[in-house]
Amino acid sequence: MNEGTRGSTGTAVAGDAGTRPMVEVTDLHRSYGTGAAAVHALRGVSFKVPRGELVALKGRSGSGKTTLLNLVGGLDTADRGSVVVDGTELSGLGEKGLLELRRDRVGFIFQSFGLIPILSAAENVGVPMRLRRTDPQVREERVALLLALVGLADQAAQRPGELSGGQQQRVAIARALANEPALLIADEPTGQLDAETGLAVMELLRAVVRSQGVTALVATHDAQLLDFADRVLELGDGHLVEHV
């Protein structure tokens, strides 16, 4: 079928869902501030992320990586240009549509883990499904499945403070997968981990992409982790300087 498919929250984009990119960014600009003090975080960035791939985004601090991830994930809006995620152009979404996109179609993994300290690992994983009002039995079954997927079935009852940094990030990955997103966005997911644990987390992300059929866009400054990616985008001073 060659007709565009309309996302539940936005404008349809022409093309078959099986062949169009998961992410398509075109001439993206984003600045903060005005006049001489303005910071130009992104300056005309364009790229595509194919479905089912793990794409690494590299660049030094201040190169625009986080800004780009925030725009792709619907956490920020561009000054100019377009972002299409899973067939939906984000500029056509209101706040309600962006909320639904982030809840249902995009999973986020952050450097700081972002777990709720008073909740157990299982409860943290279940939070997105509670917000979506998933049936409790279905939710509990999926939580168990996801904790097993990330190797933490035996730590379901433990709180974040009782887990190592690597284990906490694994819980965060399981939580990001809770609502079966099409796209995972990870901003420096190994930034607070030692080298060995960071490699293990990246290996897990690659395995998740393969086994769950999701697409991942992962920002990292660690050159060792780039080998896990299917392709690499490099940002420098707000420009895309390398695309391999």
From TrEMBL:
One of its GO terms (cellular component) is membrane protein complex. SMART domains: AAA. SUPFAM superfamilies: P-loop containing nucleoside triphosphate hydrolases. Keywords: ATP-binding, Nucleotide-binding, Transport. It comes from Streptomyces agglomeratus. Transmembrane segments: none annotated. This is ABC transporter. The keyword Transferase does not apply. It comes from the Bacteria. Pfam families: ABC_tran.
